[in-house]
Amino acid sequence: MTDTQKRSGFGLIWRIITAVPPGRNALVALAITFAGAAEGIGIATVLPLVAVLGDNASKSNALSKAILSVLDAIGLPHDPILLLCIIGGGLLTKAAVTLLALRLVGRTVAEVVANLRLELIDAVMRARWSFYVRQPVGRFSTALSGEAQKAGEAYNGMTQMFSQSTQALIYLMIAAVASWRLALLAVLVSAIMIVSLNRLLVASKNNARAQTGRMRSLVSRLTDVLVGIKPMKAMARQARFNALFTEDLKAIKKSIRRQVFAKNTNKALQEPILALCLLIGIYFALKVFAMPVGEVIVMGLLLTKTVSVVGKAQQELQNIYANESGFSAVYEVTDAARAERETASGKAVPTLERGFAFDDVSFAFGERQILRHASFTVNAGEIIALTGPSGAGKTTLVDLLLGLQEPAEGTVRVDGVPLHEIDVLKWRAQTGYVPQELILFHDSVFANITLGQPEFSHEDAEHALRRAGAWDFVANLSDGIDTIAGERGALLSGGQRQRIAVARALVHRPKLLILDEATSALDPQTEQLIVRNVCQLAREKGLTVLAISHHPAWVEVADRVLRLEDGDLVEQLHEGQRAAV
Ligand SMILES: Nc1ncnc2c1ncn2[C@@H]1O[C@H](COP(=O)(O)OP(=O)(O)OP(=O)(O)O)[C@@H](O)[C@H]1O
């Protein structure tokens, strides 16, 4: 059971309440209580009105006496018009203050949702690399959209429930002053209603949870499928996924049906339960306690009011339950991401003036040994080609160099300083990285290169594109550098995408350039052009290059070739060196 599941129910409600500034909560509570009290005064004044209108029996009622003596104390007459004004004034004040409270609630709900989303995005962005590898992307999308929205609705439900409960309490107090029997009856009828309809609340909660889980699974699957839709379409193998979605959709349909039924039934059954209890109450009041008709009518009004607000409070609780699974899901993702937050790195700022080194580094994924006591040094300005069979661990070696993975043993050093003493964010900021599976954003070529960082101009992007051998084709696109690349860059060819990714890695003038099979999709001439440009950067600007590639173009120009195989890292002589030997 996760922490979030343990905290479900009222623990989570408490978390939502405490997510709102205490002052705001207090203000909302105050406005709601004040509105309830104003209405309560209005309703309570009905009994003395009946008394003043001539119902002598009502005159002897404690509530009538209390209100009329307050009028005496402040020197006001027992005038029916005045009492009508008090009733109307109470109801109008309630309406006005409720409007104010609703404005506050609206603002707070918007803030709750926005804060939840901010917290979620912040936690996800700060998580370590290994966290993302284990999560379906759809999990984040569902949490960010529908589930965060539900959290806001749950807060709204809580304020409504608080409002109804406050009103119920006020009515109950008035009822207690009017008659202890009435108060007892109100408590009894409310209890009958709460207990008899509780099953519907539990049903709402369970169905909402099932629905949230299924929705998450559906969105995760759909996102995965859409990301990899092309080969499925090309091989006409998408039918299996249709069947999977149908399963999820069927389950969602079933839980929605049950949830709507539970909600509507709760609403529908409250009225007959109340009516039945009221009829029994009226019978006892008239026949057993021989209460006067006028008093019984007012008491009936008070009882109806009290029990119906209890009913509304119960409906709001049902709403909270229906939305609770939403915010517990948001917290689950946020908490999971927070638990995997990248630990604070060191303070040293590397300049890569001397180079970097692996010092007796070992690393494994479970049983799979990737590096075994690897030691090597790369001097600043060197071009290194890294080769090795598929799955040997070349990408993982780069992850270790960038602090995306931590060695089980040994130390990675930059300029002689261990990586854990270095500010890794500043270290990574000096790196240009072109991954094997590159993805362009659905945005312009310019935005894909600058990643939206305002410090880069069109000239910077053009300069980087020229270095990446991409300027000619970009200049010929319909909107030049402002052409939209399409979903994941699908409007460009594989080789064009690679060159834009190289430009993205060069635009911030890095000190270290990491190319992971970055030119694999290019024709030999274009690849040679990029290799020449990168070599020039290494010679003129001291750029250090680590190129994972089997292509001769890189192996031939490399100062050194490292080969990784079965966990062992060895230095190889390339053609030129072999000839010299
Ligand atoms: N996050 C991970 N968790 C568990 N195993 C992983 C993870 N990432 C990679 N691996 C495994 O580690 C091994 C090395 O993967 P890596 O991507 O580093 O190899 P590579 O040499 O770059 O391969 P290729 O040349 O095919 O790109 C593979 O067997 C892979 O299955």
TrEMBL record:
**One MF term in GO for this entry?**
ATP binding
Give the main localization category: membrane
UniProt topology in membrane: Multi-pass membrane protein
Q: Which SUPFAM superfamilies match?
A: ABC transporter transmembrane region, P-loop containing nucleoside triphosphate hydrolases
Q: Which Pfam families match?
A: ABC_membrane, ABC_tran
Q: What PROSITE patterns has UniProt attached to this entry?
A: ABC_TM1F, ABC_TRANSPORTER_1, ABC_TRANSPORTER_2
Residue ranges crossing the lipid bilayer per the database entry? 27-53, 81-102, 168-195
UniProt keyword ATP-binding, yes or no: yes
Give the GO cellular component terms, alphabetically: plasma membrane
Q: Which InterPro entries match?
A: AAA+_ATPase, ABC1_TM_dom, ABC1_TM_sf, ABC_transporter-like_ATP-bd, ABC_transporter-like_CS, P-loop_NTPase, Type_1_exporter
Q: What is this protein called?
A: ABC transporter ATP-binding protein
